[in-house]
C-alpha cells in the first residue's frame, strides 16, 4: 500500500505536462486547449478501473445473456442459436426447479432468522461495558471468517459421528438426527449455518441503529405512559428502519447466492440435489457438465430473480423509512 | 423487553449464555487445535492441557506444502488486489462524484448494477475472457478479476466520502496552481482515509476468504489460495480433526490479525455507510 502510494505521490508531485499547459493558458482557455487535460484526466482517473469492470463483469454478463440462447458446450462444437429452448426446458426441469425451491427456502429462513436474532441480540448487548463489548466481538467473529472455514467447523459438529451427536449419545439419545445425512433435515442445517454466519453482521448494524435512537424520545414516551413494548413499537422500531433495510437486502443477496456451504459440506446431497442451490446448480452444469449454454440460461434466471427481489424489497423498505 | 431496574441481573446472565452457545463451535476449534488428535473425539470440549503444537507443525511440514504455498498465493493476491482496488476506485469514485456529465451518470448506474451480479452467474464467461488474454490459471488473472468484480463496491464507498470533502478545498488548491492529479493525491486522497480503510478491510476479508473464484480460476494444477487449501485439506485428512482445525486456524490467523489492526476504522466505516445509505 504505502509503497505504491509513495510512488504515485512522487509522480503526482512533478507537474504533469498537460496540467502545466493548462496553468500557463490561465484566464479563458479555448475549448480545444481545455479538451487536452480533460481527456488526460479521464484516461487516468476513469479508464483503468472501468476497463477491468468492462472486461470481467460487463462483457461476461453480455456473454452469459447470449450463451443462454445457444447450445454452447466447449467440448461439443459448433455452438448454435437455439432461441428460447433453454428457457422452456428450464421451466419443466425438475432438478432446476428443486434448486430454485431450495434457494428460496434458504433465503427466507436466513432473512427472517438472522434479522430477528440479530435485533434481539443487539438489544441484549446495547450496553457499553467491557462484558458487552467482548460479546459483540464474539458475535462478529464469523463475519470475518471464510464460509469454507465455517462450513468445515459445522460439518465437524453436525456430521453423523460429529461432536453434537456424540454429545447427544452421551446424554442417552439413542438415534440422534442425521443433521447433514437426512434429506429432510440437511437443507435446514445449511440454512442454519448461513444464519449463524450472518448473525453478527446484523447485530452490528442494529447496534449502530439502536445507538442512534435519542434517549429523550424513549424518556418522553415513558413519561407519557408507554410500557417497554409500546416504546419499542412506536419509538425504537420506526427509528431503526434503515438498519432493517440494509440487513434484509444483504441477507437476501447472501441467501440467493449460497454456494460455498453446499460445495464443502453436502455437494448437493444427501440423495439427488436435496441441498443444491441455484448457484451450485449453475456451476455444476457449466464446469462439470460443460453445458455452458444451458447453465447460462439458468444463471440469467438467477440474476433476474436476485435483482428484481432485492430492488422490490429495497423500494418497499425504503418507502417505510421515508414515511415514518 | 426486559425491565432494566427489576431484572438488572438478568441481562448479563442471558447475554453470556447466548454468547456462549453462539461461540461454542469456534471454541471447539480453538481448543482442539492444541490437543493431541486421539483426545479430540472422546473429550471435544476439554481444555487442551498440556497444549501441544503437533497439529500446527504437521500442517506446516506437509510434504506437498499445501499450506505454505497457499499462504504465499493468498497474501500476494489479496495485497495486490486491495492496493489496486483502493487506488483505482478512489480515483474513479472521485471523478464520478464530481462530474455532472451525463456519461458519468450512465457509468455510475452501470457500475452499481454490477453490485448485484453474483459471481457464479459470470464465472464461465470470465474463464473464456481470461483464456483469450492468456491469463487463465495465473495469479495475475485472479487479481484482475478481483479488481473488475469489486470496483463497483469501492466506487460506491468512496463516492459517499468524496461528497463530504468540501469542493472549495480542491478549488483553492487548483487556484494555487496544482494540477488535477496533485489535487487528488495531496488534498483529496488523505481526507478519504476512513473510506480507504473500509475498502481495504472489507475487500481484504472478502478476497482472502473467497472460495469459488480462485477454485475455478487457479484450477487444480497451478496451486491454490489458502482458503481453497482448507477445502483440499478436508478431503485428505478425513476425520483427523486436529490437522483440519490447525489448517483452518493458520489460514484464518493472518486475515483476523489484519482485521483486528484496522478494526476501529472498519466499524466506523460500516456505520458511516449505514447512515449515508
Automatic annotation (TrEMBL), chain A:
Lineage of the species this protein comes from: Bacteria, Bacillati, Actinomycetota, Actinomycetes, Streptosporangiales
This protein's UniProt keywords: Cell membrane, Membrane, Transmembrane, Transmembrane helix, Transport
Region named Disordered: 1-32
Protein name: Carbohydrate ABC transporter permease
Keyword Transmembrane carried by entry: yes
SUPFAM superfamilies: MalF N-terminal region-like, MetI-like
Domain ABC transmembrane type-1: 100-315
Localization terms from the record: Cell membrane
Membrane topology value: Multi-pass membrane protein
Residues annotated as transmembrane: 42-69, 104-125, 137-157, 185-209, 239-259, 292-314
Family as reported in the entry's similarity comment: Belongs to the binding-protein-dependent transport system permease family.
The species this protein was found in: Sphaerisporangium corydalis
Signal peptide: none
From TrEMBL, chain B:
Keywords, comma-separated and alphabetical: Cell membrane, Membrane, Transmembrane, Transmembrane helix, Transport
Superkingdom as given in the UniProt entry: Bacteria
Alphabetical list of InterPro entries matching this protein: MetI-like, MetI-like_sf
Location in or out of the cell: Cell membrane
Any single Pfam family the record assigns to this protein: BPD_transp_1
Stretches assigned to the ABC transmembrane type-1 domain: 71-262
Signal sequence segment: none
TM regions (residue ranges): 12-34, 71-96, 108-130, 142-162, 183-208, 241-262
Gene3D superfamilies for this protein: MetI-like
Membrane topology of this protein: Multi-pass membrane protein
PANTHER family assigned to the protein according to its UniProt record, in alphabetical order: ABC TRANSPORTER PERMEASE PROTEIN MG189-RELATED, ABC TRANSPORTER PERMEASE PROTEIN MG189-RELATED-RELATED
Family: Belongs to the binding-protein-dependent transport system permease family.
Protein's recorded name: Carbohydrate ABC transporter permease
Organism: Sphaerisporangium corydalis
Amino acid at each position: 500500500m504505502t509503497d505504491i502510494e509513495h510512488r504515485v505521490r512522487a509522480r503526482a508531485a512533478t507537474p504533469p505536462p498537460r496540467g502545466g499547459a493548462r496553468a500557463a493558458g490561465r484566464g479563458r482557455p479555448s475549448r480545444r486547449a481545455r479538451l487536452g487535460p480533460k481527456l488526460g484526466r479521464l484516461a487516468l482517473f476513469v479508464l483503468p478501473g472501468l476497463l477491468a469492470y468492462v472486461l470481467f463483469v460487463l462483457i461476461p454478463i453480455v456473454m452469459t445473456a447470449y450463451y443462454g440462447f445457444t447450445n454452447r458446450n466447449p467440448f461439443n462444437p459448433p455452438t448454435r442459436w437455439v432461441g428460447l429452448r433453454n428457457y422452456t426446458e428450464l421451466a419443466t426441469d425438475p432438478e432446476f426447479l428443486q434448486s430454485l425451491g431450495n434457494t428460496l427456502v434458504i433465503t427466507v429462513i436466513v432473512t427472517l432468522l438472522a434479522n430477528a436474532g440479530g435485533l434481539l441480540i443487539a438489544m441484549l448487548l446495547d450496553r457499553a461495558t467491557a462484558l458487552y463489548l467482548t460479546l459483540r466481538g464474539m458475535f462478529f467473529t464469523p463475519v470475518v471468517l471464510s464460509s469454507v472455514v465455517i462450513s468445515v467447523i459445522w460439518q465437524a459438529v453436525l456430521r453423523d459421528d460429529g461432536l453434537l451427536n456424540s454429545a447427544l449419545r452421551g446424554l442417552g439419545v439413542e438415534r440422534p438426527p442425521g443433521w447433514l445425512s437426512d434429506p429432510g433435515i440437511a437443507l435446514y442445517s445449511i440454512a442454519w449455518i448461513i444464519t449463524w454466519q450472518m448473525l453478527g453482521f446484523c447485530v452490528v448494524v442494529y447496534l449502530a441503529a439502536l445507538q442512534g435512537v435519542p434517549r429523550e424520545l424513549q424518556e418522553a414516551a415513558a413519561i407519557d405512559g408507554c410500557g417497554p413494548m409500546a416504546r419499542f413499537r412506536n419509538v425504537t422500531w420506526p427509528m431503526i428502519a434503515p438498519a432493517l433495510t440494509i440487513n434484509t437486502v444483504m441477507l437476501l443477496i447472501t441467501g440467493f447466492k449460497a454456494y460455498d456451504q453446499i460445495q464443502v459440506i453436502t455437494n448437493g446431497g444427501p440423495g439427488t440435489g436435496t441441498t443444491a442451490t441455484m448457484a451450485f446448480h449453475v456451476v455444476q452444469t457449466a464446469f462439470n457438465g460443460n453445458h455452458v449454454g444451458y447453465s447460462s440460461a439458468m444463471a440469467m434466471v438467477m440474476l433476474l430473480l436476485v435483482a428484481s427481489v432485492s430492488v422490490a424489497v429495497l423500494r418497499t423498505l425504503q418507502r417505510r423509512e421515508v414515511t415514518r | 423487553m426486559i425491565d432494566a431496574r427489576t431484572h438488572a441481573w438478568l441481562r448479563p446472565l442471558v447475554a453470556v449464555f447466548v454468547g456462549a452457545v453462539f461461540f461454542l463451535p469456534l471454541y471447539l476449534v480453538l481448543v482442539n487445535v492444541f490437543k493431541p488428535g486421539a483426545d479430540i473425539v472422546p473429550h471435544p470440549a476439554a481444555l487442551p492441557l498440556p497444549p501441544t503444537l503437533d497439529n500446527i507443525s504437521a500442517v506446516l511440514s506437509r510434504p506437498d506444502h499445501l499450506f505454505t504455498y497457499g499462504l504465499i498465493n493468498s497474501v500476494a493476491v489479496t495485497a495486490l488486489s486491495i492496493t489496486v482496488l483502493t487506488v483505482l476506485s478512489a480515483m474513479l469514485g472521485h471523478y464520478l462524484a464530481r462530474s455532472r456529465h451525463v456519461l458519468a451518470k450512465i457509468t455510475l448506474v452501470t457500475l452499481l448494477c454490477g453490485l448485484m451480479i453474483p459471481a457464479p452467474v459470470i464465472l464461465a464467461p470470465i474463464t473464456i475472457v481470461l483464456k483469450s488474454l492468456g491469463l487463465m490459471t495465473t495469479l495475475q488473472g485472479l487479481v484482475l478479476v478481483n479488481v473488475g468484480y469489486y470496483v463497483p463496491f469501492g466506487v460506491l464507498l468512496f463516492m459517499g466520502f468524496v461528497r463530504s470533502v468540501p469542493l472549495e478545498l480542491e478549488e483553492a488548491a487548483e487556484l494555487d496552481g496544482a494540477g488535477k492529479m496533485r489535487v487528488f493525491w495531496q488534498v483529496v486522497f488523505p481526507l478519504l482515509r476512513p473510506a480507504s480503510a473500509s475498502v481495504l478491510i472489507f475487500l481484504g476479508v472478502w478476497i482472502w476468504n473467497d472460495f469459488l473464484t480462485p477454485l475455478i480460476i487457479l484450477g487444480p494444477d497451478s496451486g491454490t489460495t489458502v482458503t481453497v487449501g482448507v477445502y483440499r485439506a478436508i478431503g485428505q485428512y478425513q476425520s483427523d480433526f486436529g490437522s483440519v482445525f490447525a489448517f483452518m486456524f493458520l489460514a484464518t490467523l493472518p486475515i483476523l490479525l489484519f482485521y483486528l489492526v484496522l478494526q476501529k476504522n472498519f466499524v466506523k466505516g460500516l456505520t458511516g455507510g449505514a447512515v449515508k445509505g
